[in-house]
Design brief:
Helices cover about 20% and strands about 45% of the residues. It is of the alpha+beta class. Strand 3 and strand 4 form a beta hairpin. It is globular, with a radius of gyration of 15 Å.
């Protein structure tokens, strides 16, 4: 799910095992073209867009709710109007799925 330059997606660890209860709020940004290698295909290509993690969302089944943890002050420094409502709505939708499990 995306909002402006932000996206919430599952955490993608190096070992490829996705934890269905952990997500990351990332921010996309544009930059000059740089060579990159597609990790799944090994294909080399040029990229003009990258992202970094702003915060993590983790489902707490005891509460039940999401815990939101910023990476340092990134969430505050990267804040844009409407981001709070995007996060809240995403959590409301995802919570329905989590409670069904």
């Amino acid at each position: 799910m995306q909002f402006k330059d932000f996206e919430i997606r599952p955490v993608k660890p190096i070992n490829g095992v996705i934890d269905p209860k952990r997500f990351e709020l990332i921010r996309w940004y544009d930059h000059n073209p740089v060579p990159v290698t597609d990790m799944s295909t090994g294909e080399k290509k040029m990229s003009t867009r990258s992202c970094y993690v702003v915060a993590w969302l983790e489902w707490d089944a005891k509460e039940p709710c999401f815990d939101l943890k910023s990476v340092g002050l990134r969430l505050v420094k990267d804040w844009v109007d409407g981001l709070d409502q995007f996060i809240i709505r995403w959590c409301e939708i995802a919570a329905i799925c989590m409670e069904d499990e």
